[in-house]
Write a structure and sequence with these properties.
By secondary structure, the chain is α/β, with parallel strands linked by helices. The protein is built from 19 helices and 22 strands.
């Protein structure tokens, strides 16, 4: 999509001689195909084009969701005069309540809106450059409030080497499920997207990811490209709309090494002039940029910022942001930006799931992996195959604040603390869990193990030892000095999960995987936990739940599965098809192991080089032990490529489907071997 014309062919306007509006061509909006234009209000330092001087910069000021011109953002005339700049108000896509709030189409949420703002910036940059009018090309700024804060951050993301500084005032950081689907957590904001693939308003994974300004992989790409913009993000601590997402974005930017300066407005900072509230409104949005960043923005300041490198407009290169379903590309080949989406090629299918070294190339060539690098090509094909059956793994924009709530604390013998809590897994569901903290956590960070229960009505209570049983490994491991975490599987224990598609999952399996991934987030956040030493253990349902989670979650460094699997070739496939598991095995693949696009050899191979132990009972009537041996034999070839064949271990206790004492001893020692230092 796009105009497809060179800058010379597009009827770009000339800059006005005095403050006033211009209309620029914009990229086509697929929801309403055809030519589109955007109105831009231009303000000069003293009201005339002739007031532009060598120190004059350019400053975008972007209105809020539902606004027009400069509603809810800094006054352009004030910005132009205070900071010696050409200030631009952009009526980007869906400006005004008719299109943004009342219209039937989904709210764009920063993609085309950011491109519109960048085109306005390019107009001024290009016009002054072409006319050889000296200006400060290294002083390019942006600010905006609420929805305009979102577009400000998106513009900086889409042109990562262009801005000198941006000031986000209470902006939205991502198109969360709550905002996209009008869920209660959105506090009445409705972006009108749909979960239904057949809908014209369907929100794809990639479309959601590109709109996440705190996306870790995208931030890493910005850093790699050399983004140097100083980012000010201002939020009131009582902002119920955007604070949590703002905190997440700031933390992600810090981890990526970007220059982020968050400003959290406290009650002590409310002065009645600049800040009037710690809520979403903040206060005087004309004064806030100067208050938090003035010394960097003012042309005559000793601390004035000036970018020394070329803008993306001048580089004429593409910016690429990978997503789970392809890549979003912003082309600057014409100077001004043109955005497009490139879908990822479909992952090839493999007729023999046991031939784990086979690699099907995009060119149709078939090769056999001879190195770890060769194998990585095959590994990339495994997760899409699982997703065809389990449903799409939630993308990073799906994360919500964990909002941990402690329900009870009980001190146990041996200095153990057992804490019952709940955490917010996604936009609609909380998960209950038991957390065990050994007394030793007061002295040093400890390894942690995620403990997943079997098919038991009481759920987490069994592995936590609240009922007498041999499978209380959350308690056992805590007694050995681990931090342990035992959550409920969906619909077990305290969970009332109903498996309705409105929650966004195609299977109970994928819902459980995501709950466990959020449990890892929670463990990683605890001061008592060494986040580099995380493992997972489970029996039966918990055994394959551990495996399914670990294949998607690389932070789990060690995996232990007791009586959790066999090859689909030797299993009762219909038993996997209930709503708690993977209904598509029956509905789309006819309960035929040859048609199901993955099998356990690929899952275990994908763990490599992480240590994996299976304790599989010789007399297991649920999971054929000969099939387990078949799986390990096939997967061992990949562990051998990594030089870690000894870290793939099978232990086969006598007896039925159980986790007997000898197997538990082997499992606990295996965890000790790989997680203790």
């Amino acid at each position: 999509m796009g105009l497809g014309l060179s800058a010379a062919e597009v009827p770009w306007p000339k800059l006005p001689e005095r403050d006033g509006p211009v209309v620029i061509p914009a990229q086509e909006w697929p929801a309403r195909p055809g030519a589109r234009e955007v109105r831009v209000l231009i303000s000069y330092p003293d009201g005339t084009r002739g007031s532009i001087r060598p120190r004059t910069g350019i400053f975008l000021t972007l209105h809020n969701w539902g606004g027009t011109d400069c509603a809810g953002t800094a006054n352009p005339v004030a910005l132009a005069r205070e900071f010696n700049c050409v200030a631009l108000c952009v009526n980007y896509l869906q400006s005004g309540p008719k299109d943004s709030i009342e219209g039937p189409e989904p709210y764009d949420f920063g993609w085309l809106q950011g491109l519109d703002a960048l085109r306005a910036l390019w107009l001024v940059f290009h016009e002054l450059d072409s006319a050889k009018i000296p200006f400060a090309r290294g002083r390019l700024f942006a600010t905006g409030g609420s929805g305009g804060g979102n577009v400000t951050l998106m513009a900086n993301k889409l042109a990562p080497r262009t801005f000198t500084a941006v000031v986000d005032m209470c902006g939205m950081k991502k198109l969360s499920d709550a905002l996209a689907y009008n869920l209660p957590a959105a506090n009445g904001l409705n972006a009108r997207w749909s979960r239904e693939p057949a809908s014209a308003s369907f929100l794809t994974a990639g479309a959601q990811e590109i709109r996440f300004v705190g996306h870790p992989a995208h931030l890493a790409e910005m850093k790699r490209l050399g983004s140097t913009a100083k980012i000010f993000s201002v939020h009131g601590l009582d902002d119920k709309t955007c604070l949590g997402d703002g905190q997440e974005m700031a933390a992600n930017m810090m981890r990526a090494g970007l220059d982020i300066m968050p400003v959290w407005v406290t009650k002590e900072m409310v002065d009645g002039k600049v800040f009037t509230t710690t809520g979403h409104a903040l206060g005087n949005r004309t004064l806030i940029p100067g208050h938090v960043a003035g010394k960097f923005l003012r042309a005559d300041s000793a601390d004035a910022l000036e970018r020394k490198t070329l803008t993306d407009f001048e580089r004429r290169e593409d910016i690429r942001y990978p997503t789970t379903d392809g890549a979003f590309v912003i082309s600057y080949a014409r100077g001004f930006p043109v955005g497009r989406f490139e879908p990822a090629p479909g992952a090839p299918s493999y007729p023999d799931r046991f031939d784990v070294l086979r690699v099907n190339g995009t060119d149709g060539k078939i090769t056999s992996a001879k190195s770890v690098a060769d194998w990585e090509s095959r590994r990339r094909h495994i997760l899409p195959a699982l997703e065809r059956v389990m449903g799409t793994f939630p993308n990073p924009a799906k994360r919500v604040a964990l909002d941990v709530k402690v329900l009870e604390e009980v001190k146990l013998e041996g200095g153990l603390l057992r804490r019952k809590l709940t955490y917010q897994s996604d936009a609609t569901d909380r998960v209950a869990a038991y957390l065990f903290l050994p007394e030793a956590t007061a002295k040093a960070k400890l390894p942690a193990v995620l403990c997943l229960h079997q098919t038991a009505r009481l759920g987490k209570a069994e592995s936590a030892g609240l009922v007498e049983n041999p499978k209380q490994y959350a308690l056992h491991l805590a007694q050995r000095g681990y931090v342990t975490f035992a959550p409920d599987y969906p619909s077990f224990g305290d969970s009332k999960y109903d498996f309705h598609p409105r929650h966004g999952y195609a299977s109970g399996t994928m819902k459980a995987i995501w709950d466990n991934v959020r449990a890892v987030d929670l463990l990683e956040s605890l001061p008592e936990v060494d986040a580099a030493r995380l493992g997972v253990i489970g029996h039966s349902l918990g055994g394959h739940n551990a495996m399914f989670t670990a294949v998607f979650e690389p932070r789990l460094r060690v995996i232990v599965s007791s009586c959790g699997f066999t090859t689909f070739r030797k299993d009762d496939l219909p038993s996997w098809t209930g709503k708690v598991y993977m209904p598509r095995i029956a509905g789309e693949f006819g309960n035929d192991a040859a048609k199901v696009p993955f099998d356990f050899p690929e899952i275990v191979a994908a763990f490599a080089p992480r240590p994996f132990l299976t304790c599989s009972a010789e007399g297991d009537s649920d999971f054929d032990v000969s099939g387990v041996r078949d799986v390990l034999e096939a997967a061992r070839k990949v562990y051998e490529l990594h030089g870690r064949a000894g870290d793939l271990v099978g232990y086969y206790p006598k007896g039925p489907h159980a986790f007997p004492e000898d197997a538990r001893k082997v499992a606990y020692n295996f965890l000790d071997q790989h997680l203790r230092r």
